[in-house]
Amino acid sequence: MSGPTPVDRIVAEVLADVAARESVIPFKEIKARSRDTDNTRDGYQALLRNGCSVIAEIKRAIPGRTLLAADDTDTAPIAHLAREFEEGGAHLIACQTERLRFHGSLTDMKAARAAVEVPMFCRDIILDPYQIHEARCYGADLVPLQVELLDQNRLVSLLDRIESLGMTAVLEVRSPAEADRAMDAGARVVAVNARPLVGGDVDKQIFTEISPGLPETTVRIALSGVHSPRDLLAYAAAGADAVVVGEELMMAEDPARLTRTLVATGQHPSCPSR
Questions:
Q1: Residue 175: phi, psi to the nearest 5?
Q2: H runs (alpha helix) in 140-254
Q3: Average pLDDT score over residue span 110-114
Q4: 181 assigned to some structural domain
Q5: pLDDT tens for residues 193-230?
Q6: Is the residue at 247 inside a domain?
Q7: What is the H or E stretch that residue 144 is in?
């Protein structure tokens, strides 16, 4: 009998982490808090502009590599980066809040959102309703759901809960079959991730395989693989309405300048547009 897969272990670790937090702040309380927070910013509308929008992602680490010290008591660098990205013209800012592999935190996202005016995209592995209310408490305007980790009933239920709180659900897929499930669930925004959840290399061709099969009204986000304006243009030509850029911006000597370059590329008249 085979043991748990790497994906099984990730799911178990995330759920255990959620249970630990819920033991401190019960679900009933976090739910009440989430309905008494600042109004959401319209992330969906921010994705509908002409050209290809840039979502600048803040992350302290990627598996196997530290990008920023893992210290959620010091959020000043997070706020500074958020302001740099906004100054560069980013249309949205994403913040990696997943703690176990990316050393992120909800505190990071709260600090980033407080520093800027653009919508905030929470980047995490969301498996439980508790996490959705928690994300809203800390300022999330967009929340992801990884289709491969959720059965269809759970997917629909979590999507409805996200939207009921005024946030935008972003359904993350890695195959045409998952994209079909996202459509069946009622997704308005689909993010195609070129990076496997566990291991493997970035495969940007996945976007070109999935994008043509999505309804024209579906907002398409390309995740992973943007290192230059050329990469952005390639994704835009394949139908991307937005790209998430993380590691490249985190390592840039001048994050605002690189953001500005990518934004200008995405808004240039030569850039394909819906």
A1: -160, 160
A2: 152-164, 176-185, 205-210, 229-237, 247-250
A3: 96
A4: yes
A5: 999 888 778 889 999 999 999 999 999 999 998 999 99
A6: yes
A7: strand 142-146
